[in-house]
Specification:
The structure is a single chain. By secondary structure, the protein is an alpha/beta fold. The chain has helices at residues 6-16, 54-57, 66-76, 90-102, 116-133, 154-158, 197-206, 230-242, 295-302, 319-333, 337-352, 381-390, 412-428, and strands spanning 33-37, 40-43, 48-51, 107-113, 141-145, 178-180, 210-215, 219-220, 226-227, 246-250, 274-277, 289-294, 361-367, 370-375, 393-394, 401-404. The chain has two domains: 6-64 and 336-428, Aspartate Aminotransferase, domain 1, CATH 3.90.1150; 70-333, Aspartate Aminotransferase, domain 2 (3-Layer(aba) Sandwich), CATH 3.40.640.10. It has a seven-stranded mixed beta sheet with strand order 4-12-11-10-7-5-6, with helices on both faces. Strands 1-2-3-15 form a four-stranded mixed beta sheet.
Length: 430
């Protein structure tokens, strides 16, 4: 097969390709990557960038990992895909059992889909169909946290923050959900019951119409990179039980060690009724999501009018993706991932700390393998992106947050380079 030249790739990209959250009339330059290895992205012009984003937080083992490569190569010679309706296979069975074993207690049923947003859609449909099957169709709304982000499809958009969730253009067509204030308690703040006053008030007032509360445990990601108290999460679990509302934990960003626990729910010692997983599930190799639920939820749905759960993606349980996930999880669990994350956190805290003294910075915060510098003003992505690339690092800010979530395999030296060059760019960015 004839390869395109760098010039041809650039021309086609500029003329025809619509990148995420981008304009075709005022495009942000797209950097041509020709290969990736470990924590480095190689550009067509020969430059190499240390990747601080892990491909939107998913490539936890870095790139071109031999064990993940081998798992996919082996599977493709056996079966690349087969419909999941009426058919099962070993990669899906193995993955389902592993997820049941390693996620918080009580999550015993696994529904596979092909992206994080769809995984959230599945969770919302599970909650609503559960209550419908109980003869309580009035419980059909969702309570979500402000500053929350849960994806770009219509159901997922409806539970993103209606102002900061990037989807306000669609407000007139989205399901009208309920919202409570974003947690006001930082991760290490002293707990005060006033921190849950608003969500408690919402549950008292609306529990009769609420199917579920949905939240990102401990870390609100795209909505602001905000870390909040584990006690908040624990109290929300208790309030959901008290007012008979299901709890959906969206761990698409936080799952598989990112915050320092295998799953962020573990910080509070709680288990949700429904759990959403994605991103790092396959180590960033292939798109795959999983929505887990309790037997109570699955039985409640299947004993209802329909008798089945009303959802079924074409590429559900894709064998290649399941094989990648099995290899990625095994690789993670057999590594010293807890020590790796703790070391990354410590280095991020010390490496980014000088930014606290910059007059245009409002906050610097770190948890697990997440480091955030929050500026007073939003950045121009195209301008600051070029400055990062010129420094040999790949960092993709949004709004006023300049953040990194690197692969777990990043070396101390590479992490030093990443944080030092972040500081150099941020210090003089106005």
């Amino acid at each position: 097969m004839k390869h395109l030249t760098t010039s041809q790739v650039s021309t086609i990209d500029q003329q025809h390709i619509w990148h995420p959250y981008s304009s075709l009339t005022n495009p942000i330059p797209a950097y041509h990557v020709v290969s990736a290895e470990g924590v480095r992205l190689k550009l067509a012009d020969g430059r190499e960038l240390i990747d601080g984003m892990a491909s939107w937080w998913s490539a936890i083992h870095g790139y071109n990992h031999p064990e993940l490569n081998a798992a996919i190569k082996h599977q493709i010679d056996t079966m690349s895909h087969v419909m999941f309706g009426g058919i099962t296979h070993e990669p899906a069975a193995k993955l389902a059992q592993t997820l049941v074993d390693i996620t918080p207690a009580g999550l015993e049923k696994v529904f596979f889909s092909d992206s994080g947003s769809v995984g959230v859609e599945v969770a919302l449909k599970m909650a609503i169909q559960y209550w419908y099957s109980q003869g309580n169709s009035e419980k059909s709304r969702i309570l979500s946290l402000r500053k929350g982000y849960h994806g770009d499809t219509f159901g997922a958009m409806s539970v993103c923050d209606p102002v900061t969730g990037m989807h306000h253009l669609f407000n007139n067509t989205l399901a009208k959900q309920l919202f409570t204030e974003s947690p006001r308690c930082g991760f290490n703040d002293t707990w005060n019951e006033s921190h849950i006053a608003d969500i408690k008030s919402q549950l008292v007032k609306h529990h009769h119409e609420l199917a579920a509360v949905i939240l990102e445990p401990i870390l609100q990601g795209t909505g602001g990179m905000h870390f909040y108290s584990p006690t908040y999460l624990k109290r929300v679990r208790e309030l959901c039980d008290e007012y008979d509302v299901l709890l959906i934990a969206d761990e698409i960003a936080t799952g598989f060690g990112r915050t320092g626990k295998l799953f962020a729910c573990e910080w509070a010692g709680i288990s949700p009724d429904i759990l959403c997983l994605g991103k790092a599930l396959t180590g960033g190799y292939m798109t795959l999501a999983a929505t887990l639920c309790t037997t109570k939820v699955s039985d409640g749905i299947c004993h209802g009018e329909a008798g089945v759960f009303m959802h079924g993606p074409t590429f559900m349980g894709n064998p290649l993706a399941c094989s990648a996930a099995n290899a990625s999880i095994e690789l993670l669990l057999n590594s010293n991932w807890e020590e790796q994350i703790a070391a990354i956190e410590g280095q991020l805290k010390s490496g980014l700390a000088p930014a606290k003294n910059y007059s245009h910075v409002t906050d610097v915060r770190c948890l697990g393998a997440v480091g955030v510098i929050e500026l007073k003003e939003s950045v121009d992505v195209a301008t600051i992106q070029k400055q990062f690339v010129d420094k040999g690092i790949w960092v993709r800010p949004f709004g006023s947050r300049v953040y990194v979530m690197p692969p777990y395999i990043i070396s101390s030296q590479d992490l030093d380079t990443l944080t030092n060059n972040m500081l150099k760019v941020v210090e003089f960015y106005k």
